[in-house]
Structures are given as structure tokens and as C-alpha cells.
């Protein structure tokens, strides 16, 4: 495959920059937006779209996690508990995914993130109002979140942060930014595992993925910085809207392919 023309390359770099900014802002890798875009806009099949999106996601997630960790010094035991569990689960579920009905999985995931987004949007008070003043992670519970987030990463190649962040805010009562930092500790290593799996299966378009990733490198830190200046309620509602829009987008994509 040839490298894209200059105008196409600039467009791809700009797209990568936009995905990187929103990934840093909401503590996600951008895959939930990139995958349907690749399918509808670039005509990719599902596996190739997910593998290519992971090229963008991995550096964005690693940088985003590093930047969030500068603001939230999380205990390494909690980080290790959620990260290792998620990575192992990603590996196991990715091996199982090829034997499952992908259409059913996509519909379940679409409806799930739609329901979570609506619930977060309708919350009348911040979930973190009941959090402890130190907002320290409950290390013993981190493997549970890791398994759930890793399952999403393994089965769908994305969505680990979209699963983990609402759990950490609504169930474990962490602040939105701390929850996003923990989510990044989950999805950063598991995305590396997922990318390795897709690359081994030759399901990655590196000529598109690498420019996207390069463009995102310049904006993901800006997204993280903006997140820490936004009011928590506004950040939570914005994150909810991203999930709702992504859910409808994926549903339209699913209907479009049938």
C-alpha cells in the first residue's frame, strides 16, 4: 500500500490531532470514535478498523495516563491490580472473540454504552460527592474493574475506558478525573496487548494508523490539561454525550452494513 498524498496526509494528521485531543479530554483512546469512522469513511472491515484504531489508541493512552498520573498520584498497587488483570483478560477474551457472533457483541456494546451515557447525563449530583476526601482507590476491587474493562478491550478492541470510568464514578464514588486516570491505567497496557494480537494477524493498516497516531501526539496533553480546568459536572456530562453519540453512530453503522 502506498503512502497517502500530501493533502490526504494533512487531513489524516488533522483527524489524528482531533481524536488525540478528545481522547485526552475524556480519558479514552479515541477508538470508540475512530472505529466507526474507519468503517463508514474508509470502507474497512470490522477487524481491520479495530486494529488500525489501536495504532492511534496506544500512544494516546500511554501519554494520557502519564499526564493524568502527574495530577493524581495513584498507589502503584492499585495501578498494577487493574492493569495486570485487564491485560490478561484482554489476551484471553481476544482469543475467544474469533469464535463469537460479532454482530451480537456489537449490539450489546452499543446498547450498553447508550444506557450508561444516558444514566450519567441524567444524574442530578456528582458521583464524587460521596467519595472520601483522599479519593484513594479501593485496591481489592480493582481486579473486578480490570476484568470488565479487559473483556471489552478483548472482544471489541476498544471500550475499556467507557466500561471502567462509569463504574469507578458511580459505584466506587471516585471523582471523574481520578476515575479516568485509573481507566487509563487499565486500557494503556491492555491496548498494547490488543494491538500486538491484531498486528500478528495482519489486521492493521499502518500507513493510515501511524499518521493518525503522530497527529494525536501533539494534542492529547492539551486535552488532559483542559479536563482539569473544566467543572466536574460539565466534564461528566460531556463524557456522557460522547458515549451517547458514539452509541448512535455505532448503531447506524450496524444497520448500514446489513
Automatic annotation (TrEMBL):
Keyword Cell membrane in record: yes
Main location: membrane
TM stretches of this protein: 12-40, 47-68, 74-92, 104-122, 142-169, 181-200, 212-231, 238-256
Record's keyword terms, sorted: Cell membrane, Membrane, Transmembrane, Transmembrane helix
Membrane-related topology note: Multi-pass membrane protein
One Pfam family, short name: TauE
Similarity section: Belongs to the 4-toluene sulfonate uptake permease (TSUP) (TC 2.A.102) family.
Name by which UniProt lists this protein: Probable membrane transporter protein
Organism listed in the record: Limnobacter thiooxidans
Amino acid at each position: 500500500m502506498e503512502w497517502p498524498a500530501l493533502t490526504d496526509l494533512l487531513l489524516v494528521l488533522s483527524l489524528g490531532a482531533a481524536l488525540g485531543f478528545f481522547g485526552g479530554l475524556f480519558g479514552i483512546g479515541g477508538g470508540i470514535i475512530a472505529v466507526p469512522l474507519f468503517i463508514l469513511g474508509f470502507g474497512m472491515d470490522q477487524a481491520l478498523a479495530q486494529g488500525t484504531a489501536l495504532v492511534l489508541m496506544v500512544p494516546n493512552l500511554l501519554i494520557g495516563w502519564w499526564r493524568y498520573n502527574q495530577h493524581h498520584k495513584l498507589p502503584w498497587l492499585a495501578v498494577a491490580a487493574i492493569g495486570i488483570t485487564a491485560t490478561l483478560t484482554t489476551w484471553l477474551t481476544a482469543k475467544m472473540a474469533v469464535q463469537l457472533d460479532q454482530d451480537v457483541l456489537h449490539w450489546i456494546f452499543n446498547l450498553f454504552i447508550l444506557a450508561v451515557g444516558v444514566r450519567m447525563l441524567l444524574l442530578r449530583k456528582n458521583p464524587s460527592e460521596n467519595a472520601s476526601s483522599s479519593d484513594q482507590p479501593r485496591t481489592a476491587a480493582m481486579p473486578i474493574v480490570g476484568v470488565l474493562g479487559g473483556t471489552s478491550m478483548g472482544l471489541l478492541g476498544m471500550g475499556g475506558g467507557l466500561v471502567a470510568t462509569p463504574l469507578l464514578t458511580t459505584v466506587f464514588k471516585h471523582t471523574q478525573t481520578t476515575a479516568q486516570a485509573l481507566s487509563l491505567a487499565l486500557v494503556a497496557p491492555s491496548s498494547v496487548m490488543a494491538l500486538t494480537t491484531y498486528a500478528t494477524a495482519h489486521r492493521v493498516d499502518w500507513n493510515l494508523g501511524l499518521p493518525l497516531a503522530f497527529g494525536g501526539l501533539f494534542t492529547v496533553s492539551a486535552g488532559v490539561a483542559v479536563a482539569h480546568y473544566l467543572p466536574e459536572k460539565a466534564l461528566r456530562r460531556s463524557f456522557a454525550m460522547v458515549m451517547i453519540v458514539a452509541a448512535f453512530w455505532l448503531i447506524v453503522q450496524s444497520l448500514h452494513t446489513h
